[in-house]
Amino acid sequence: MKKRFLKWTLFAVATLSLVACGTTAQKTNSQQAKTEKAAKSSASDGQVEVSLKRGQYIKPPVLNDSEDGTYLALQLEFKNVAKESINVSDSDITIYDEDNNKVKLQSGIYDQSEAFQLLKSDQLAQDKKLTGYIVFPVEKGKKYEVQYERKTYSSDKKSKPLKFAVDSSQYEDKAEASTILADEYINQVYFSGQRKVKKDDAFVLGTDLKKEASDFRAKFAADFTRKLHDYQFPEEEVTQFIDAYEKENAKRAKLTYKVKQYFPDKVVISLNSETVSMEKTILNHMQTFYQEHRKDYPGIIEANQAQNKAYREEMMVSLADRPLTTPDRYDYQLTFVKKDGKVGSRKKAYNSDSFMEKNSREIFLNAEVGTSRT
Question: Which pLDDT belongs to residue 58?
Fold first, then answer.
């Protein structure tokens, strides 16, 4: 079976301090047809030819949850078949539901990209094409009619409106399923793939996340050895501690995702995490250790070294008993952006941009390894 590949690149919102990497999503022909099913319909009034290219359920950004709704985005293509330039405008579009009630087009979608542009008023030269999306609220399963009628013409001849039937059941809403992208990314980067996550052929990570996982572990190790600097831990012992911490989080961490935006080329997912806390454990352990064992060592250097070593050993044993906590800044966002780049005739491959924010450990290390936040 021939497959169509769609690329996703994951960017992190800089102010929210989150690791970012490239990912991909691929869809089989049947899924692509379901999620972006083209109406395969076109009509002409002698001056402009209009085609209904494809459609998809979207989730535009809202200021509060009460504004959430179900929206269908349809991509229209206009071709000027007249002998002179014409004006194309979203004001020439009218939508009716099954009961002939007029449905209002959505115009206040402010977060748009180059690949997703709402249809607006524009001048179209002879033989040129223009595409744009119209967005309107729908009830799933209901049928609608899209009418296009130009308000002005160069001649006095009146044209009948061009009509397109739209069956909302022809489009599958994949917005909520897109959280699989975030869940798999977090699993691969922070848990070394140890958690069981749901699978969906429409949302498949395609970029190798080994570097992102390696970078995270390197930052963990650097933070660990910096705060426990009196004892020179062998690399193997640091690795064992990180492995134990990841394993415990993979087992117990609670991750809650919510789709904030869903567009044909962009998905924004918020993350609330509850992870194994080690907050203030170094400080508390140090105080207790000195009270009980300071006299057992000839000097402060020896005592500090012993305390560092004992801390690691005791934490390895007690990780399962540590409580789960939520970082102070709990509303993190992951933004996935889809880009097209042809490789061969039947595939779409994607470059991936990758970077790590300096405070990315805040999500799963609660901003520290053992000490209180600064």
Answer: 95
pLDDT at 66: 64
CA angle 90, 94, 95 (to 5 degrees): 125
DSSP tag of 23: E
Asked whether the predicted pLDDT for residue 237 surpasses 90, the reply is yes
SS3 of residue 114 by DSSP: coil
Dist CA 182 CA 267 (whole Å): 10
Q: In sequence order, what DSSP letters do the residues of 155-214 get, joined into one string?
A: SSPPPPPEEEEEEGGGS---TGGGHHHHHHHHHHHHSTT-S-----TTS---S--HHHHH
Residue 92, burial from CB neighbour count under 10 angstroms (0-12, 13-18, 19+): buried
Q: Are 80 and 127 in contact (CB under 8 A)?
A: yes
Write the single-letter amino acid at 346: R
Determine contact, residues 137/43, Cβ cutoff 8 Å: no
Chain segment 175-184, per-residue pLDDT in tens? 999 999 889 9
Whether 233 shows a pLDDT value over 90: the answer reads: yes
The dihedral of CA 145, 68, 24, 177: what is its sign? negative
Average pLDDT, stretch 39-64? 86
Encoded tokens for 223: 């933070």
Query: Among residues 210, 184, 221, 195, which one has the least CA distance to residue 365?
Result: 221
366: which DSSP letter? T
Of 70 and 352, which is predicted with more confidence? 70
Three-class SS state of 328: coil
Q: Residue range 61-88: average pLDDT? A: 88
pLDDT at 206 over 50: yes
Contacts of 195 (CB under 8 A, 6+ apart): 187, 250
Report which DSSP code applies to 47: S
Q: What CA–CA distances, in Å, run from 371 to 226, 284, 285, 365?
A: 12, 9, 10, 11
Q: Which of 365, 360, 361 is nearest to 18 (CA)?
A: 360
Whether 181 and 337 have beta carbons less than 8 Å apart is answered as: no
Residue owning tokens 């995702």: 257
The pTM of the full predicted model, rounded to 2 decimals, is 0.77
Question: Which tokens belong to 343?
Answer: 């490789």
